[in-house]
Amino acid sequence: LLFVGMLSLGVIVVSRSQSFAVDLTGFLFGDVLAVREGELTNLAVALVVTAVVAAAGHRAFLALVFDERKAHTLGLRPRLG
Predict the structure, then answer these.
(1) Pairwise CA distance, residues 15 & 21, whole Å
(2) 57 — phi, psi (to 5°)?
(3) Per the confidence metrics, is the pTM higher than 0.85?
(4) What CA–CA distance (Å, rounded) separates 39 from 33?
(5) What is the pLDDT, as a whole number, of residue 69?
(6) Distance CA 29, CA 6 (A)
(7) pLDDT of 19 over the 80 cut
(8) Cα distance between residue 1 and residue 67, in whole Å
(9) Fewest CB within a 10 Å sphere: which of 19, 34, 40, 62?
(10) Cα 62-63-67 angle, rounded to 5 deg
(11) Under a CB-based contact definition with an 8 Å cutoff, are residues 68 and 78 in contact?
(12) What are the boundaries of each domain within the chain?
């Protein structure tokens, strides 16, 4: 809460000040037009890898979340990761 409060206070101070000549929205949220095609490709590859790992390990993740002993009983190795 302290971080969010200080960030909002900073936004209020900068937006009320007449001496700053920056676009506050672009500074806070970035510029969509500044994203390059290579960065989008990297994000797409990371998304695919994450989805494959999540799909492949879904059963193990689910068993481990609920009970480590049950995961071991199912033949999974919960301490491996």
Answers:
(1) 10
(2) -100, 15
(3) no
(4) 12
(5) 81
(6) 17
(7) no
(8) 33
(9) 19
(10) 125
(11) yes
(12) 1-31, 35-81
Structure tokens at 35: 């994203």
The better pLDDT of the pair 9, 28 is held by: 9
Distance CA 50, CA 37 (A): 20
CA angle (14 as vertex; 8, 18 as ends), nearest 5: 155
Residue 45 CA to residue 50 CA, distance in Å, equals: 9
CB 45 within 8 A of CB 33: no
How many CA atoms does the CB half-sphere of 44 hold within 13 Å?
6
pLDDT in tens, 29-70: 777 778 899 999 999 999 999 999 999 988 878 777 787 787
Structure tokens at 40: 């989008």
